[in-house]
Amino acid sequence: MAKPIDRIDRLPALSRVTRGVRLTLAMAYVIKRYSNRKLYDTQESRYVTLEELEELIRAGKEISVVDVSTGEDLTSVTLAQIILENERNRRATLPTAFLHQLIKHGEAWQDFVQRSLKSSLDGIMTSQRESDRVLREWASRAGWLHGTPAEPKPEKRTEAAEGDALRDEVFALREQLRALEERLEKRRER
Description:
extended, 6 helices, four-stranded mixed β-sheet, alpha+beta, 4 strands, 59% helix
């Protein structure tokens, strides 16, 4: 059995991996998959099971699974394997009709489902972050939080700034729309 490599940078085949995948690898928990199908957690320096990967993901960790010999990104295959294991154990049930359609219509349908799910999840995550922010703000105003709220991480400050900018832009667009409606109403009166 090959000895695990300590740093993903030393993986010779990684040079074939795209820039986007490299960025994902830099931000994610890197899991190496060996030819014997064993999964190696590079942060914990130990072998892990699919169940342990599922626990990492449920705990909010991003994972990236890389084939040690080729450098190929196997993340989506591994995530699908986790879902199928759950299906087999009846912990999650995907409708049979949905699975038939997914196979029947091939890549176009899979791309559509993938885009739809990503869009839905992005919306849910954005809503959750916004509701968390609002609840913290209300709790702070009500005096339920002792002291001042913790300083948000730089990422969240950026998201908050983007949210504020978006709200300002929507407000400005509404004002412009209102002004245009007034002008249109005045022309109709003439």
